[in-house]
From TrEMBL:
Organism of this sequence: Flexivirga oryzae
SUPFAM superfamilies documented for this protein: Protein kinase-like (PK-like)
Assigned keywords, A-Z: Kinase, Transferase
GO molecular function term, any single one: kinase activity
Keyword Kinase recorded: yes
Annotated protein name in UniProt: Aminoglycoside phosphotransferase (APT) family kinase protein
Entry-linked InterPro entries: AGP_Transferase, Aminoglycoside_PTrfase, Kinase-like_dom_sf
The keyword NAD belongs to this UniProt entry's keyword annotation: no
Residue span, Aminoglycoside phosphotransferase domain: 27-208
Length: 246
């Protein structure tokens, strides 16, 4: 009999693995509906939907393994990152989905709130927060919307032994958004793979915007991670990204 593996669990959603099936349990049924539609619209490999009910989504496992995990050494070769870049470019060139991600003005206001919280609660030195807030400014500009994944963490992209992308997971944030945010999210904490990713992406990219999103995402995520039992100060994770910002 297969065992139940808890993949991730917090107060908003939990993902379980039972044999070859992943069960996603979400407190917000609308997020599951959003994810199903986004996967159907995306022109790149996504997990097969087996069935769903309100608050529960069953997905088939994706072959291969993740590109990596934030805070851990990378094992996927450069060719896998080139393939990931080409896959993301295909997504970004697809017809736009019906949802719109927060705009730069809304994100700037949220970022200021999170920076104030980090300083007020002595989570990070004020000078470090202020420096990264300035770096983040490069990302908070008008952009041409693309079909963006919205949460393209390194653990969400699977690759096989032939360096082919076999699936991209977790589409609940899929929307019309900044394509460079996806590129920055995937390389967060792994700047050394940015060149390979952009080689596969094959389009000019403003590196200051990528660096801005590294800082912005790390600042925006810190409080949520802390309040949900994760440690952004683990080696190689968000706080190390903030310390390395330039």
């Amino acid at each position: 009999m297969p065992e139940i593996e808890i993949v991730v669990a917090h107060s908003e959603r939990t993902t379980l693995r039972v044999g070859n099936v992943f069960l996603k349990v979400d407190a917000d049924p609308a997020r599951i509906e959003h994810e199903i539609i986004a996967m159907d619209l995306a022109p790149i490999p996504t997990p097969q939907v087996l069935w769903h009910q309100p608050s529960v989504l069953a997905l088939a496992t994706v072959p291969g393994k993740p590109l990596g995990k934030l805070g851990e050494p990378l094992s996927a070769p450069p060719a896998a990152w080139v393939a990931a870049g080409a896959t993301i470019r295909k997504l970004h060139e697809a017809p736009l989905p019906p949802w719109t991600a927060p705009g730069h003005d809304e994100l700037a206001a949220e970022l200021d709130q999170e920076c104030s919280w980090l300083i007020a609660h002595d989570v990070l030195p004020a000078a470090l927060v202020s420096r990264n807030r300035k770096v983040a400014e490069a990302a908070l500009r008008p952009w041409t919307p693309a079909f963006a994944h919205g949460d393209l963490q390194i653990a969400h992209v699977f690759v096989d032994d032939n360096e082919e992308i076999t699936g991209v997971l977790d589409w609940s944030e899929g929307a019309q958004g900044d394509p460079l945010y996806d590129l920055a999210t995937l390389t967060l904490g792994h700047e050394e793979r940015l060149h390979d990713l952009l080689t596969g992406y094959g389009a000019p990219v403003d590196l200051d915007v990528i660096r801005g999103w590294w800082s912005a995402r790390s600042l925006l995520a810190a409080r949520w991670l802390i309040e949900h039992g994760f440690d952004p100060d683990s080696p190689g994770c968000e706080f190390d990204v903030l310390r390395a910002a330039r």
